[in-house]
Design brief:
The chain is globular. The chain has helices spanning 17-26, 43-57, 79-89, 109-115, 129-137, 154-164, 183-192, 197-214; strands at 2-3, 31-38, 64-71, 93-97, 120-122, 141-145, 168-171. A seven-stranded parallel β-sheet has the order 1-2-3-4-5-6-7. 42% of the residues lie in helices and 16% in strands. It has one domain (2-214): Metal-dependent hydrolases (TIM Barrel), CATH 3.20.20. The chain is an alpha/beta fold.
Length: 215
Amino acid sequence: MIDFHTHSILSDGVLIPSELVRRARVAGYTAMAITDHVDESNIEQVIRQLIKVSAQINTDKTFTLVPGVELTHIPLKHIPKMVKKARSLGARIVVGHGETLSEPVEPGANIAYIKARVDVLAHPGLITDEECVLAVTNSVHLEITARGGHNTSNGHVASVAKRLGGLMLVNTDSHAPGDLISDERALKVALGAGLDEKDFRRIQKNAKQLLEKVR
């Protein structure tokens, strides 16, 4: 399992980064990104801490930890500069908090994050064809999520992405140990979204290619 969307105690998760990694490894993960929620108030501190932890974890070459962030509820006009700031501070994965149906996300967040070229648009909700086409152009990955609430629109996201050639990933948005999943469970999440096993193999290939790009 490769998971590009997880949270530690550095934002609203319940585990310190090293324990999150340990539990992920026991669950069968080979790589993951910790992408804690950030805005202007905490972005420097979170990235600095995750870079330090990643350097320590990655001395073991059998596992890869990628330091990242999830830009969350950022005012739309500030999204482009925050994406650039995250990258300049050393975030290797930048996730944009998409227009999930389970939270009051400001309309227009999806397209703003896609235009800013985040790596992953998390839980994109009722993503439009226009947004998906631009995501393809900008190589933005669209998330099929295992997280309750956010996953109510998985079927819609998968249908639009499959029809228009969108790059999909299965991520967990983990906040606690029980949120981590195996490859077998990830397959079920994909199947539940209306995809098939061939689609899931493509998703796994997408994850491996993104990991090679950011590691």
